Amino acid sequence: MTMDRYVITGKQSLEGSVRVSGAKNSSLPLLAATLLADGTSVLMDIPDLLDITHMVEVLATLGCRVQRDEEALVVDASTLNGAEVDETLMRKMRASNLILGPILARTGRVRIARPGGCAIGSRPMDQHIKGLMELGVKVKERHGYIEAWYDRLQGGDIYFDVPSVGATENIMMAAVLADGYTVIHNAAREPEIVDLQNLLNKMGAKIRGGGTDVIRIEGVRKLTAAEHRVIPDRIEAGTHMVAAVMTEGDVRVDNVIPEHLEGVIAKLRQAGAEITLEDDAVRVRQRGRIKPVDLKTMAYPGFPTDMQPQFMAMLAMAGGTSVITETIFENRYQHVDELRRMGANITVDGRTAVVRGVETLEGAFVEATDLRAGAALFLAALAAEEATVLEQVGHIDRGYENLEEKYRGLGARLRRVLPNSSELARIDT
Ligand code: EPZ
Questions:
Q1: Among residues 118, 119, 133, 417, which one is catalytic?
Q2: Are 304 and 297 contacting, i.e. CB atoms less than 8 angstroms apart?
Q3: Which residues contact 53 (CB under 8 A, 6 or more apart)?
Q4: DSSP assignment, residue 307?
Q5: What are the tens digits of pLDDT across the range 175-205?
Q6: Does the annotation mark 118 as catalytic?
Q7: DSSP-assigned letter for residue 247
């Protein structure tokens, strides 16, 4: 991952409009789903992100031919000849585990390195394995690898202990080619699940209930390749909306599905933002001090955990105290220490963070520890006094396409400098 860093000048009100790219967290399962068909699928509006590059690498390792045609990725899975993802690839991106379901359904066996944890949590796979075993799959874990195979893939009744997004996606992609019916109870309800259901049904699958907590799948014999446009990235959209509020700006965020942002919109309005909805855009204006709000992250349609760091940066400047509870990941407060370096007053006790708002944040040398923590610090730097140097921007590259271009277009003053650049010395003056 690149060691580049951003130098960001703060106190710049953002004005204008920005277009949201396709959703990273939908593109990844959609790419995995193309493995199910012996043909060439076309996925449109797939963002050019590091995580997508890594998923393309995984598909190529499995024998698929993938090429980018502007905003589309063309995946020929007819030459699939592998069924294993080694730890090098898995360590690059844990979402590689989404090939589990499709490879099993297509070839009858799969072997993947157990994805390591990441900065925000241990990221277990017990629900993925529980679901597969309900479909008649045999699973063995040894030497850090998960091996799975079956004599017969049969439909089953699956009850998830937690509404896991990845486990729901993996089981959907396995069950579409199973014999008979599968019902998934306590399924994840994220918009990305609905997007995956829509692609799979275009490929000939018979799935109902995506977006609710009960998904019904009637197994079919074969799937065929299809074309599909990925939904817009609701977390990127939410990040831009918070940027507008933190810089007391006036920003129109284009290419959104407002229903996907209900939790974020409600909380921003509670914080005092003026938000107007259009068909596929939202306009965010902020005048005056941000109001404190309490947040509790929940599975969709609750407030999204992927927006918690960005909201913490915003609430660090609110006129009062906010209480944040992170119920999804056990270690998603790595951004707190870095925000403190910028003058934030935050205390963490287990899953709860108490954020006492300060008048303004101060520019400082800070470091991105993971994708959304990096996004939070990027936003804090835009709002802070003077300049901020943000290190390890490779984390941000994983989830935000053309970030500098988009923010320069809104009036931000920032530049990306190489790690050994002497340019940094000028910041101190
Ligand atoms: C997806 O991760 C997203 N990633 C994450 O976005 C997002 O934060 C998360 O869903 C929750 O919304 C992608 O879609 C690629 P989970 P996923 O399985 O599927 C526990 C970002 O910033 N769990 O829904 O890995 C788990 O420990 C990333 O874009 C089990 O206990 O999330 C966690 O506490 C970060 N057993 C909770 O469920 C399992 O088998 C939610 O995890 C699986 C998960």
A1: 118
A2: yes
A3: none
A4: G
A5: 999 999 999 999 999 999 999 999 999 999 9
A6: yes
A7: T
